[in-house]
Amino acid sequence: MARQLITSGRRPVVSYEYGPALGAGPDDAMEDRMTTATETKVRDPRDYVKRDVWDREIQLMMRDHPVDEVMANRLFGAAVSYLITAMEKWGQGLEMCCGRLVDLAVHVFILDTRNYREFCAEHFDGRFLEHIPEIEFKYDGSVERTAQIIADAGWDVDWKLWERDYGKCGPCSPGSNCH
Predict the structure, then answer these.
(1) How many domains does the structure of the chain reveal?
(2) E strands, 88-142, where?
(3) Are 55 and 132 within one domain?
């Protein structure tokens, strides 16, 4: 029987309880009923961007958009987790895309071309992750699916940033591996 345990600052932990094995004696049955829990550390977007680059992107976000430092950090963290997941899921035909709010931080990073190019080279086997948006927005639930893909990849998703754009979705090119 599996049950989910919630721990602060960590991903949910699944705990399994096992009953006695067939033919086991009383001492063996007690050992089999012990609960085993494993804990998975949540991935941190700051581990994927050099500190000076992170600080620069935050400053650029605040310069170009009406956000404070807290919101800039939230958005850039969401953007980095999205970009890394897009690189890791490359070629799987998932049609990942973020909503307009998270896309602000993605665009700030892309426009800082040298830092974005180096980020891609480091985390995408020397390749460059293209950004090829469609003209029209699609309304197919892809933002919600993308947020779940990111969560499943081990990131702590800031759901409020993603939920805001569930109905709007993104303009990413269908059938492509771009983000």
Answers:
(1) 2
(2) none
(3) yes
Contact 140, 114 (CB under 8 A): no
Other beta carbons within 10 Å of 159: 12
* Residue 5 backbone dihedrals phi, psi, to 5 degrees: -110, 135
Domain span including residue 31 = 2-37
Asked if residue 173 is part of any domain, the answer here is: no
Cα distances (angstroms) measured from residue 160 to each of 71, 75, 85, 163, 178: 11, 11, 19, 5, 24
Say which residue the tokens 């050099």 belong to. Answer: 50
Q: pLDDT tens digits, residue range 11-27?
A: 443 333 334 444 445 55
155 and 70 in a single domain? The answer is: yes
Mean pLDDT of 87-101: 91
